[in-house]
Design a protein that fits this description.
binds flavin-adenine dinucleotide, alpha+beta, 433 residues, 12 helices, FAD/NAD(P)-binding domain
Length: 433
């Protein structure tokens, strides 16, 4: 087997949202980087996943000149409905967060944009290239990859580990340092994508004694649905007829029709939340699902991945442009509070919309009471509704909004991290031991 060596400044493992955002930002600032991705380009485009892009994420994409198509094709989205068999109410969260909205835009479309922009600028993504082992040292790292019959050795100053939950990056940080924590929830969802026009202009969270049913938006012709299903069920237990009749039942409302269509994908999702207690070790920095995953409730996964990537990329820029390594040293500390808030939000929404199995247990009865209470608080308390709205939309405090991309001086960084150039500083502090 032949072997080839490549040297770069930042080796990015994974061409998901996190890796591609980092790649685009680094390239814009003239920092050498390389993306390696184990799948082919068509395989990446075929994965149907997130679709709800929050306001903070849109601001980040706009700041880096990566939002053109999203703002053109994506749809702003500022209302969601909570529907039970007895009642329904629509929460206008846009009105409660100074006009800030989500955009509905499929993750594959965003990946298409990010790959296109990066390659157009001259960036390099090595598809069909799988990272196998990482040697992580205090100053520099080496990634060994397989590309068909060829072995690639990539030497870099830093690794951005953006290879998702099942990648190799997290495993390169000893558990005693990463301290991974997992919470498994007793719920399972069937995620369904269908060729059906949306039946409402907003998302519906259906809370029904038979289980949660969700109606999400994607495009004019494609919609996404979720059904809470018994833990242990497989995709084969759910025929198209069964899916539609259950969605019709759980989402039923007077004078409203659920449009059906051809089901083009279905996938069982087990609900769990996972996170490491640090996102960095020596020369390796984790972003996105490699360091935290949450349930799809609240649509925070991809948004957090992009927000991590933005902070990490700016920290690299600060290091290379201004010889300031403090943002890199503080990367985990900067990101963890926001990640915890999102985990908390997602968990709280999850419990509010799902029905606990085992109908008559005391635990199930208490959970039903809490669920009713939470829902009524959301309907009746402005404070609760506003807090929900801002967490949900990814509220950006407008005084601090980091919108403007660098113009006059192309190396000028936005002040979101409080970054200041230190042109005279030449001694780099160790990043971590
Ligand atoms: C059904 C579903 C619905 C979702 N809905 C939402 C939503 O509405 N909103 C939201 O914000 N989030 C949502 N998410 C979560 C979101 O999709 C993820 O959080 C997001 O993709 C994370 O991005 P990432 O870049 O960290 O990781 P990924 O997107 O997983 O990308 C990692 C990349 O690394 C590659 N890779 C892995 N191992 C290696 C290796 N060894 N070598 C090279 N490459 C490797 C993978 O092939 C992949 O391309 C959803 C997820 C699912 C499954």
């Amino acid at each position: 087997m032949s072997s080839k060596e490549i040297n770069t400044q930042v080796c990015i493992i994974g061409a998901g949202p996190a890796g591609l955002i980092i790649a685009n930002i680094l390239f814009k600032y003239g920092i050498k980087c390389l993306v390696i991705e184990k799948y082919s380009q068509p395989e990446i485009y075929a994965r149907s996943r997130a679709g709800l892009i929050d306001y903070k994420t849109v601001s980040i994409l706009q700041e880096h000149g990566l939002s053109d198509r999203l703002l053109k094709i994506g749809k702003p989205h500022g209302k969601c409905e909570f529907r039970t068999p007895e009642q329904s109410f629509v929460l206008n969260y846009e009105a409660m967060s100074n006009g800030q909205t989500h955009y509905t835009y499929p993750q594959q479309e965003l990946l298409t944009d990010l790959i296109y922009k990066f390659q157009l600028a001259g960036g390099q993504i090595l598809f069909n290239t799988q990272a196998e082992t990482i040697v992580n040292e205090r100053y520099g790292a080496t990634v060994s990859c397989r590309q068909g019959e060829q072995e690639l050795i990539i030497k870099s100053d830093f690794i951005a580990g953006c290879d998702g939950f099942h990648g190799v990056s997290r495993a390169a940080i000893p558990d005693a340092i990463a301290q991974p924590k997992t919470v498994n929830y007793d719920y399972a969802w069937l995620a369904i994508t269908a060729e059906a026009a949306p039946s409402t202009p907003h998302i519906i969270y259906g809370i029904h004694p038979r289980g949660f049913a969700g109606h999400m938006l994607r495009t004019e012709t494609i919609s996404r649905y979720y059904l809470q299903i018994p833990v242990g069920d497989t995709e084969n237990d759910w025929s198209s007829d069964r899916i539609w009749s259950e969605l019709q039942l759980r989402l039923a409302k007077d004078n409203w029709t659920l449009t059906e269509g051809k089901i083009i994908a279905k996938q069982v999702l087990t609900m769990r939340s996972f996170s490491t207690q640090t996102m960095q070790h020596k020369s390796l920095f984790l972003a996105g699902d490699a360091t935290h995953i949450m349930t799809p409730a609240g649509g925070k996964g991809m948004n957090l991945a992009i927000q991590d990537a933005d902070v990490l990329a700016k920290s690299f820029v600060s290091y290379y442009r201004y010889h300031d390594n403090l943002p890199l040293r503080n990367y985990s500390a900067n990101r963890l509070p926001e990640i915890r808030l999102s985990q908390d939000f997602s968990e709280s929404l999850l419990h509010m919309i799902n029905i606990q199995e085992g109908d008559n247990s005391e635990e199930a009865n208490l959970s039903k009471l809490l669920q009713k209470f939470k829902l009524s608080q959301l309907m009746n308390s402005h404070t609760t509704a506003q807090e929900f709205a801002r967490n949900y939309v990814g509220y950006v405090d407008t005084d601090q909004a980091p919108i403007k991309p660098p113009t006059a001086n192309k190396y000028l960084l936005p002040s979101v991290l409080g970054l200041k150039p230190h042109p005279s500083k030449t001694t780099f502090l160790a990043l971590s031991s």
